[in-house]
Amino acid sequence: MDALIIAAGFGSRLRDLSDSKPLTPISGVPLLELGVRQARAAGAARVVVATGHEADRLEAALPAIAARCGVPVEPARVDDWSKPNGWSVMAGAARISGDYLLMMADHIFADGILPRLARQGGADRGVTLAIDRRIDNPLVDPDDATWVQTGESGFIRAIGKTIPAFDAVDCGAFLATPELAEAIGAAIAAGKAGSLSDGMQALADAGRAATMEIAGAWWLDVDDPRAHALAEEQAPRELAGIYAAIRDI
Q: Is the pLDDT of residue 248 over 70?
C-alpha cells in the first residue's frame, strides 16, 4: 500500500511562523516528516507527496526525509497549486495503483488511528474517511472544519464546510480507492471547482463513502499559530511511538 500526502497549498494561516507549512517543525520534527513516519507505521511502503507552493524547496527536502524515515518518498508536482485540493489528489493518485492512505500534510494523529484506517477497505466502498463524532472537540477550529453528516449505516450523506446539518467532523485522513480521483475528475467535468469534498460528495451520493469513527482518539489540524502551540505541547505525548523512534536514531 502507498500513501499520498497533500502538501501543495500556500498555508496562509501559518505564515507568521513559517513560509513552508509542511516543513514547519513540531517539537523539532517537520510536519511532513511526522506524516511520512505515520504513514510508514500504518503500513505504507511508499509515500507520494503532492507539491505546489515552494515546490523546489519542499522537493529538495524529500530525500533526507525518506532517508530518516526509511521509506521511499516521491514528489508529484501539481500544475497549479492555487486550485482546490482535489487537483492535488488527482496529481498524486496518478502515480499510485490500487488503494492508498490519503493524508493532509498539516494533520497529525494519535499513533493508532492510521493503522486502523488502513484496514478499513471493502467492496462496499470507494473511500473511507476517519471522522470524529465530537463536534465540540476543543482542538477543532469550527470556522475551518469540514463537517460530515452520516446515515444510519455510518456512510456519508453530506460533507463540506457549510453544510447545514452534521454529526461529525472530517479528520483529514482517508483510505482511498481509485474511485476517489475519478469522482473528483467527474465533478470537475460537471462544473465543480475540484475540491476533495466535491469528489467525496459524489461518492456519498452513490452510496460509496464510508466512515471510521476514531472513538475519542487525539488528532490535530496544525493550521494556525494556536494549533501549532497545541501541537508543540501535546504531540510528543500523543505521538509517543513516532517521537521515540526519532530519539532512537
A: no
